[in-house]
Amino acid sequence: MRKQELIHLHGLSHELRSWVTARHTVDGEFEAYDAHGVKPSEIHRRKQAHHRAVQREITGVVAVIEGSIAETAVAADEGVER
Known about the structure:
3 helices; elongated
């Protein structure tokens, strides 16, 4: 993948993060991304830095969604009479 394409993907993953965090509870899932310190607008950064940033940001998105699914499943199980 070209650097320009990777930077575009980084921007898209950042938009996805914004959408997910607006709808779900976030509890530290993006600490690795934030500590990495590379933002999509930093086009002067190396390609590998953007690659790592995308991986960390998508990992956070997946963690938030998985946590939301688990919470929904627990809530559904608590609502079932036994």
